[in-house]
Amino acid sequence: MRILAVDVGTGTQDILLFDTDLQPENCFKLVMPSPTMMVARTVTAATRRGGAPLLLTGVTMGGGPSAWAVRDHAAAGNEVFATPDAARTFDDNLDAVRELGIEVISEDEARALRRTRSDLLHLELHDFDYGMIARAFEGFGVDFPPEGVAVSVFDHGAAPPDVSDRQFRFDYLDERIRAHNRLSAFAFPAGEAPEIMTRLRSVEVSARATGLPDGVPLMVMDSAPAAVLGATLDPRVGERDQVLVTNVGNFHTLAFRLRPDGIGGVFEHHTGFLDAPKLDRLIAALADATLTHEDVFGDMGHGALVYEREPVPLDFVAVTGPRRSLMHRSSLPTYLAVPYGDMMIAGCFGMIRAWADVFPGDAEAIYESLNGREQVAPWELI
Asked: Rounded to two decimals, what is the model's pTM?
């Protein structure tokens, strides 16, 4: 069976076409610009050309670069219109979006603008474009659709106006871990992601809207646990009974204490607030079970949770993520995890492993493939 796994980050979208008939190292893969970077480049180019009026429709997607570019476009005196779902890319509070100079309009008003304003630059926002990825593979002669699709994004969730986004996400992490103490608890078949996880829900809408056939199963997952789960597929990480795994992402850094029966602790911080000494201190405190929620939340991070009060040895720290070079100056015994020889695809492999839990009927084939049973060479499938 073949599963298309797409890990959507801030800088890149990392794409793996996993095939249980192939060795994992032989599966086809792409590392391409992320959707938020693609939007940002288009908007920035329009601003530099003098500023066309901008119309944003679609769904809630990841912000960061796209949000900064749209903000700058509006600040330069250019008109920006956005439908409500698209506008929530920039803030769940639409009044806050309006304060950025963005006019929030209805879907009907957006359709009317498209009919009457030929000068508009119209962008449809989404984190996942199945059709674009399918066409890329088909251009190389690879048949589509696959037998399943998995997509991961980082979702803060839709916090109420009086609740911190950081606290809201961390409360969600806590709830999932306490209910299902495993990393695959952050993966959901289509239609089962919590309603508060609006970005995950939007991926489901985008997948079908961009051409994913109705009969193809879809799974969505939080990108940070996906990367950590993928890192455990590195043999040196997976062979340990207890292990500390850190995912240093472009925007967020998470570290997990993992044990045979699940998750012993976790913290999540903003990467921009970290350097190697601070990250070392946080990891050490997580290992000896002295880390508190306030240690991280009070430093503008999301927080910390320690479920197991027994210290674990600090003799091995697995590191993954696009900014893992931050740990090059670490004083800890770090190991750069490379599942199947490719760190950039760690999140994709994590989704494949989670797929086996979410769709247990596929588990045997996935486990056999991930465990390296003898398989055919790519040319033998022709």
From this structure: 0.94
